[in-house]
Design a protein that fits this description.
6-stranded parallel β-sheet; 407 residues; globular; Protein-Tyrosine Phosphatase, Chain A; 16 helices; 6-stranded mixed β-sheet
Length: 407
């Protein structure tokens, strides 16, 4: 019997896959209060019940300090469990841009049988039933932390910045999780990574071919892409370069033309206007400091009303406030870290309003926003303290902002 630790979307799909292959599971989750058994004979139990199992597979989001993880004797990731015999895999990781790079790569390779999944879209276990010719996997640091044996044919690593510190325990542990698959990769594999990591042990010990980059231009030069034929600006240009690099490694072809019809997804520096024509920017996907800094740089020289706040996951926010000193910006704080934001704003002498809730922030911005200024939601924090997801946060922001009419 296999134990599934946690019962989110990932393990729900995994349970179905395991049952289809004739094995039963015991599922543990903090939300379970009492034991139940389903029609397949799977047991659903509160955590820490003693049951003999041959493997324990965690939901990626369960942190390593959770008692279920500490108690596990034979812990493997869903990647280890499902991907051992799969050859044509591309993993995409890093801090910002994973989703866009993954979506771009699927767009480029869809005619070659590429299908994306993992951290976005199709759960890994559901992807296993589709048997794509090319597996394109957005891979989180959580999944990488638990993965011990499998590795991709191609690994595309975006820049790494502070994120998920409370989960990993330190920035170094977060970085090491991101670099971990490189050490396992063999001479038939290619890893495309930021140049700053080329001397890390995980890279030096690897048998893979390592390609390093510092900028989008570096990737264009190495792989022979014409940047004038790629329509994106930073930060999406780097995403495009990495996606095209991965495609060229697998196919040997420059598939830049395939991206001409691709559009960046919602809630990523997405501009819209309210009823009187003022510009608002939905960057709800900006869940960490580096993402928010990139969003701000698109509007240098403008008056910016910036909504910040949420669950910042223990990250160092000082670099963001240092960046904000270069702007004519006013902050409107929401979410669980409002007091922390307020203290930093006072330290760096940046105007700040403690709004606590998104609706209040929008109301206060509405009174100040003009046709010449920019109103932006780029929280540098997770949404889960007040919202179901960054998507819900962004949708509510757009819904409320579009109705604004300056008094």
């Amino acid at each position: 019997m296999i134990a599934l630790l946690g019962y989110g979307k990932t393990n729900q799909a995994l349970l179905e896959f395991i049952n289809h292959n004739g094995e039963k599971c015991v599922v543990f989750d903090d939300a379970f209060i009492e034991k139940r058994i389903d029609s397949f004979g799977n047991n659903f139990l509160p955590p820490l019940q003693k049951v003999q199992t041959r493997l324990q597979i965690p939901s990626p989001g369960i942190p390593p300090f959770h008692p279920m993880i500490k108690q596990a004797q034979s812990l493997v990731s869903e990647y280890d469990f499902l991907l051992g015999d799969i050859k044509r895999q591309i993993w995409i990781s890093g801090t910002n841009g994973k989703t866009t790079t993954t979506e771009m790569l699927e767009w480029i390779l869809k005619d070659c049988g590429g299908i994306s999944g993992g951290n976005i879209g199709v759960p890994l276990a559901s992807l296993a039933t589709l048997l794509p010719k090319i597996w394109i996997l957005e891979t989180s640091s959580f999944s990488l932390h638990y993965t011990q044996s499998v590795f991709p044919q191609v690994y595309l690593l975006l820049p790494i910045r502070e994120d998920h510190i409370s989960w990993h325990g330190s920035f170094d542990a977060y970085v090491r999780a991101k670099l971990s698959p490189i050490e396992r990769m063999n001479h038939e594999c290619v890893a495309v990574i930021p140049k700053e990591f080329e001397m890390f042990d995980e890279v030096l010990k690897s048998s893979a071919h390592i390609v390093t980059y510092g900028t989008s231009e570096d990737l264009a030069d190495y792989f022979g892409f014409d940047l004038s034929q790629v329509k994106f600006q930073e930060p999406f240009l780097l995403d495009a370069m990495l996606a095209l690099s991965g495609a060229k490694i697998l196919t040997g072809k420059d598939l830049s033309k395939k991206l001409l019809d691709y559009k960046v997804g919602a809630h990523k520096v997405e501009e819209f206007q309210d009823e009187i024509g003022r510009v608002w920017v939905d960057d709800s996907k900006g869940t960490n400091v580096d993402a928010t800094i990139w969003a701000l740089r698109s509007y240098r020289g403008k008056k910016i009303y910036l909504i910040l706040g949420g669950d910042d996951k223990g990250a160092d926010l000082v670099p963001l406030f240092q960046e904000l000193q270069e702007y004519d910006a006013e902050i409107f704080g929401i979410g669980s870290n409002v007091e922390r934001l307020g203290d930093l704003a006072q330290k760096f002498k940046i105007r700040f309003s403690a709004c606590y809730f998104l609706e209040q922030a929008i109301k206060e911005i509405d009174l100040k926003h003009s046709l010449e200024s920019i109103a932006m939601l780029s929280p540098a924090a997770s949404s889960l303290d007040q919202f179901v997801s960054y998507k819900q946060r962004g949708e509510l922001f757009q819904e409320m902002a579009k109705k604004c009419r300056k008094a």
